[in-house]
User: Fold these one by one.
Assistant:
Number 1:
Amino acid sequence: MLRNKRVATVAFLIGLSQLPVIWLFTQSSKLGGIQYATGNILGIAGAVFMWWQFLLGIRFISRFITRDYVAILKLHKFLGKYGVLLALIHPFWQVYNYSDWKLLLLPKLTTEFYSNVLFGQGAFVLLSLIWILSALFRSKIRFRPWLYIHYLVYPAMAMVFLHSRAIGTFLNTIPGMELYWNFLLLTFCVVVIYRIANLFNLGRAIYRLNRKETKSDGITIYTFMPVRGRIQSKIGQFAYIRPRFFAEAHPFTVMKYDRERGNLTFGIKAVGPFTNQLEKLTVGDKVYLDGPYGVFTTEGQSNAPKVVFAGGIGITPFVELIKRFGGKRTIMFYANKVLENAIFREEFKQELQTNYIDAISQEKVKDKLIIEGRITQEVIKKFVPQDYLDHANFFLCGPPPFMAAIQIALVSLGVSKEKIYSEEFGL
Ligand SMILES: Cc1cc2nc3c(=O)[nH]c(=O)nc-3n(C[C@H](O)[C@H](O)[C@H](O)COP(=O)(O)OP(=O)(O)OC[C@H]3O[C@@H](n4cnc5c(N)ncnc54)[C@H](O)[C@@H]3O)c2cc1C
């Protein structure tokens, strides 16, 4: 079920945008019958889904719909998996109609029509590659190769438009459809221009590193002060950091936002090339930020009962939450390998007292509020009263196996899935 009403509205609009395409079935006679028309309609429907998928994959656009970037990305992925499939069925249907299987991949430049089929063939090859890698093998390939292949969607979309505009019978003979297609094409072009400008940091705020503090376990606390533009982050939201004028941008939770000065503080664990590169930043260096995104802790920003589970660096969305909305009705579990890694532990203990529980997996520590080992169903039952299990909101952030284990334990204890909110540190 879609939790976010705005995302549900977008899903509804996506359905609505297919109505003119479905209406085309009534015009089948223009293409010599339902069999021929279906081939074209599949292509058009697939292209409409792709257009939505393309738009929703762009943060600048999805930000206007909702800050719930994760929900938007889910819709984006869903469209990618199932919507694009229609566009991929289209060429198979067409070559069956034309009884010429070679037309699927082999160029034939004998007439202008076949030259324009070439754009379709190009789009088919690129989209097939993207679809196979994203829908079938995403978990098997590393993030960067997948990301760079994903960018092929830009030339693929351009080819889809060139192909459909040149030889799409419906699009060239029904004035309403022509107008509809021109609108999709125009928005696509505007977005591409924006994306190019965005490469040059248009639309990003500029900050300067103000303070850098090294903690244990490869964690560094970075505080940035605004130079141009400001990101007004709410508790638990995240922003994308780009450490140089031309560089990748990765998402990180804003751990603290200083309203007066506009400073943003992040707690970042070095785990790979990007985060290692961030460690090389020195005070005074410029970075480019965009955001804020996310709605992860929205339901926790009150004094209603809540239970928080943080694993390692997954603590960052909760630092400000506990400070502002901690109190007697908040229970917090913080899992780490060794106690030293539990950053801000003293602050949490002071705020939550006996409602703060450490879970330490690789060190022996004698304390009745420190669990040795993992947070199990029994541990949760021991510290979380039944009325919390029935009514409180639960927030989970940490490594994927940690979140999966807690989720299973909570559901086994009767917690409603609707009351469990989680944030994954990988999109
Ligand atoms: C909403 C959100 C909030 C986050 N908050 C924090 C935080 O507060 N502190 C912290 O230390 N880490 C946070 N992360 C994780 C952080 O973004 C990754 O650890 C970092 O991008 C890894 O990059 P790398 O090159 O150092 O490591 P790699 O080993 O190259 O990447 C590790 C994994 O990070 C993810 N990743 C890489 N690049 C991107 C990207 N451009 N966009 C999205 N995911 C990517 C992929 O899942 C990848 O497999 C957050 C992630 C998300 C999605």
Number 2:
Amino acid sequence: MTQQSKYKMIYLDNAASTPTDSRVVEAMLPYFNTIYGNPSAIHPMGCHSSDALENARRQVAALINCHPEDIIFTSGGTEADNLALLGLTAASVTKGNHIITSQIEHHAILETCHHLEKKGIQITYLPVDRHGMVAPEAVRDAIRPDTVLVSVMAANNVIGTIQPITEIGAVCREKGVFFHTDAVQLVGHLPVDVEKSQIDLLSLSAHKFNGPKGVGALFARREVPLSPIIFGGGQEEALRSGTENVPGIVGLGMAAEIAGSEITSESARIHDLSLKLINGILNGIPGVRLNGHPENRLPNNINVSIPGIEGEYLTRELGKRGVCVSTGSACSSGTHEAPYVLLATGLERDLANCSIRLSLGKMSDEDSVRQTINILSDVCSRIRAQSVI
Ligand SMILES: Cc1ncc(COP(=O)(O)O)c(C=O)c1O
């Protein structure tokens, strides 16, 4: 028996991953052992699988308002980001070798950029303001004749700040530069329209909006030059070879359809709960600071610094009381580096190290919010009392 088991679990790490919706699981199940044909096969079992893929393509396309044929299924957000950056630069060698991104992107973008730098691609990492916002004017000023791509995330995974992607999209279109956005944290939580925001490429991931893990997609307009990064049987218009993860893709499609139909009510509900949680934390724990943008933030993401209480220690203590939160992004928790996103907003290292992220989701309710406020206040006052002794 684990220490947590005597408490009811309160899961507040939905920015790292969400539970798969039971309707999604139900939609996926037949594709494991009833409709199991390879979608490339031309017999009826294969055709059933390929029909399911095309249905999922339409469901995903409807969520972001694009043509279904512009959706490339991938193994998740990381692969979609890699395909966007590596694929576009490889296909644009004659046009230029400069990319613009921001200092607060997810590792899936930053590490790909570091790899590209070693190959001779020049990267401009734009700074952000104290709320974590990239200025569209800074994007305009950074565009050069050899710029082939601007990649700025739609919403940040650590602090939840939503970027002005429509304004950045307009700058890119005016300057004739392709615009990619890593929308992994935004898709399924807030509406996104690739036409309205003039987005040329967009990454999304199923497990961030109640779909299964290990499946995602890259939206890429037909006119965007893209080379594959995985070679083989030529699936996904030869842009992503490998037998498609049919159950996963069906799950992604269903998650997209559900998110699309519930997005207005669910985002309002989560926003309301978040405000209660933020107010409860700010009023209940002396000295707390809310990180990120005060208004332009994801409804489900709360990042706070609690002076004098190290984030990782607090995360472990909360875990003992059954409350699951995180110290930074899921991929970097477990390491001891201060969250680079918070440092980029100008937050002092001490306060950056004293931060935790609470991210709400479908299972969050008034009761879990109330309990979290009580447990967090209690744990913080105990830690502070111990450190005074
Ligand atoms: C902003 C952002 N981009 C990309 C990823 C990677 O997505 P995946 O886990 O599907 O590879 C994540 C996951 O945390 C993310 O938050």
Number 3:
Amino acid sequence: MNISTDYRYSGLRRSLHWLSALVIIWALISGTCLAFFPLTADVQQWLGRFNVALTLLFIPFFLLRLVLAVLQPKPATTALTVRQQRLAATGHGLIYVAVLAVLFSGVFMLERPAPVFGLTELMPPLRAGAATAFFAALHHYSCVLLALLVLGHIAAVIVHQRRGVRLMQKML
Ligand code: HEM
Ligand code: HEM
């Protein structure tokens, strides 16, 4: 079946979706390993620095994605009821809010300068103390919320796809 281009998300939105999916799934899984599994000091330091640099570079791409989501209409899924489409749009909105919370709290929890692959260095916006500890806790809980939302998102795509609603074709 051929999908007309106005049924799919634009090429730019599709690319940004898959870039976000890669970065976010990687950062969620590797960040959890960093926080909860015993890793050698070298691996811990490398992974911590790599993830901070990667997610900092990701911020402008995510902001562009957010602007496009606000400016461009969502392609309709006519196989779903209007109520189901509204529910999906609300779920997607929550994912955007959770990613914003994760990125914002990540920057404000920094307690030492963060090198970005030798290109530049981000200085911590706040002095280490109660405020950075608050943002570290916010980072932790917003990551848990984002992980749950992403799991729900992937499950919803699989369930609809199995019922014959061709959601994936909108994003491929
Ligand atoms: C393997 C993992 C993933 C698959 C298979 C997948 C699949 C899809 C599909 C098929 C859509 C179109 C749904 C529709 O328009 O009704 C979509 C939209 C969306 N996905 Fe994913 N996704 C994945 C991972 C992620 C991740 C990690 C995020 C986190 C940022 C994410 C965020 C979104 C958002 C926000 C939308 C709505 C786009 C918009 O309308 O602005 N997805 N995804
Ligand atoms: C895509 C967005 C991001 C995701 C999914 C993510 C995910 C995570 C996760 C799962 C953890 C472990 C948290 C815990 O439960 O204790 C973590 C830790 C951390 N994140 Fe993020 N993060 C993101 C963005 C950022 C950004 C933009 C920064 C700062 C520039 C940042 C800085 C940190 C720091 C400093 C830690 C503590 C790492 C350590 O213990 O060495 N994160 N992140």
Number 4:
Amino acid sequence: MKRLVIVGGGNAGTLISNLLAGKLDITVIEPNEYHIYQPGLVDYIIGDVGEDKIKMPTRSVLKQSIKWVKSKATKIIPEDRAVITEDGQRYEGDYLIIATGGQNKSIFNLRGYHTLDEVRAIREEVLNPKGKNFVIGSLPGIIKCPAAPWELSFLIKRKYPDANVNVIIPAKQPPPLQVPMSNMFNKKASELGIKVYKGFVINEVNHNERYIVSTEGEKVKFDHLIIDTPIFTSFTELADKSGLIPVDKDTLIHKDGVFVVGDVNNTPTPKTGAAAHFQAEVVVNNILYEIEGNRSKEKYDGTAMCAVYSGIGEGMLVWLNYEKSKALGPISLYYHMKKMFTNLYWASLNGSIDVVLRPMVASIRKIV
Ligand SMILES: Cc1cc2nc3c(=O)[nH]c(=O)nc-3n(C[C@H](O)[C@H](O)[C@H](O)COP(=O)(O)OP(=O)(O)OC[C@H]3O[C@@H](n4cnc5c(N)ncnc54)[C@H](O)[C@@H]3O)c2cc1C
């Protein structure tokens, strides 16, 4: 049996390992005891769900035949398809998959909102706010799910209609493919009375006096500051200048036998769980093509998708690939789709809802 080593048991790594279980000898290297459904962190912050809804033991989301190494990779050697872990062990495969997601640096002492540890304090503040000024947004660079800061601001404004909710967007103009999404979000913000600062690049954060200042000298006061910071890979020796690991954008191949999947690769598509899922399926197919040969090769076309809450009972849907994009809604269907996915996510990790997911995605493709 061919050996597959997967570094990172998040969304992409878990799905790939489960879909290939039994067909290859699989080792997943993942340090965390719990797998987190990251889109659910927004529901958690706003108080809609508890921790139990968005986390599951790592062992329980991996099929039994998969070997889980509870350790952190400290070195990756693509030439050998090998990984060294923090305890000095070496793991080598016929295939190597890097699915380590994005890491964040602490910039201006800002806290991130990518892990449960980070968001517990944010949830506490959002549920018991000590002031009315919320400032939500991001620093320049590639962030996880660019819709998340908007979604959080919509939900907070709906929860506290009297609050002053401000959204900080570093870009003056969105990239062309994100224009439909940006227009839809800006329209909703304006309807809700949310102030949007476009082209606001944070240059200073004064945590004591509670204000931020842009590179152009504009000052915005806050009581509650929720600012996302850009992602990069901690394996900097493998990264290109984007901070992420380069791949062929159609095949997700970094080097012979080495695939890089999900947030950690440099594909020009927003970093979303949906993109990670679709990329994982392409890689699984193409590995099976090589070892079983009973299918044709597939290409990843850049598809990413994100349902975004714009209120309670109201949601939007953003869809794009490498060539085109569309923003749909707001309607109640997208809200309920996203809510339902909080439960379906766990089944999506072993491909068991693909019978529903595939026709759904195909019908969305037809609309757009
Ligand atoms: C607040 C928030 C809201 C979001 N909302 C949405 C949404 O609405 N829709 C959507 O589609 N996406 C959303 N996303 C993005 C989505 O969660 C990510 O795109 C998705 O999880 C990426 O999957 P991944 O497998 O690439 O990385 P991850 O799921 O982050 O998994 C990476 C794994 O690698 C492990 N790892 C890291 N370093 C090492 C190492 N050195 N050794 C071993 N293992 C390592 C980590 O522990 C982690 O388990 C959101 C994200 C956040 C934070």
